[in-house]
Amino acid sequence: xxxxxxxxxxxxxxxxxxxxxxxxxxxxxxxxxxxxxxxxxxxxxxxxxxxxxxxxxxxxxxxxxxxxxxxxxxxxxxxxxxxxxxxxxxxxxxxxxxxxxxxxxxxxxxxxxxxxxxxxxxxxxxxxxxxxxxxxxxxxxxxxxxxxxxxxxxxxxxxxxxxxxxxxxxxxxxxxxxxxxxxxxxxxxxxxxxxxxxxxxxxxxxxxxxxxxxxxxxxxxxxxxxxxxxxxxxxxxxxxxxxxxxxxxxxxxxx
Length: 255
Ligand SMILES: [Zn+2]
Fold this sequence. Notes:
By secondary structure, the protein is an alpha/beta fold. The chain folds into two domains: 3-60, no CATH class; 95-254, Glycogen Phosphorylase B (Rossmann fold), CATH 3.40.50. Helices cover 33% and strands 15% of the residues. The strands form two sheets. A six-stranded parallel beta sheet has the order 7-6-5-8-9-10, with helices on both faces. Strand 8 (175-179), helix 6 and strand 9 (194-199) form a beta-alpha-beta unit. The protein is globular, with a radius of gyration of 18 Å. The chain starts with a helix and ends with a helix. Zinc ion is lined by residues 121, 200-201, 219, 221, 223, 227, 229-230.
């Protein structure tokens, strides 16, 4: 189950409570209540044991029950999407992680990896990520991640043992360049301006945030197997263009 999905649940809880002030309990769609560690600290979401006998509203969201997936039209090789739009999520970062990340305040976070189970069409391509860093040598690049991950040349590599540390880095950062995924949702939660690469696979109309520059070229195709249009879209989204967007974003923030 994706962390991005679980972060989006916190936005759903916010949206629901704007309409109905009762607390929110989450069901997996098979009649079971559930709770995720990313919701820790939320004043909106109840644990299943807290929800028992309480006047609350139920949000059905879990594996196989995501609001942006059209399950009728979705096939194994090709996902279809609904017209659902994400609401800005909320995260409560543990204070230890915030203190730990302070020393990288003002950094620019870059994440060249996608999760292993993501569609291959989500990947911009290693050489393009590398070229982006190469043409912006003066930026304080930081690449978070586990010890084992491949690291770009020209970045400070910051080993994050747990996800909260990566979120805390985003909270202290000045900007980020990210693929559509868990970190771009976390960036939205902490209000961090970012250039987010969607390409041709998925659409900001579903999972994009207004405070980000969402980079897309057609689509969303939803293909889980390599797609030629995705490859062409990525080739058109050049490192130079992304660098320009990033600089624009950073100038906007200082102004
Ligand atoms: Zn495609």
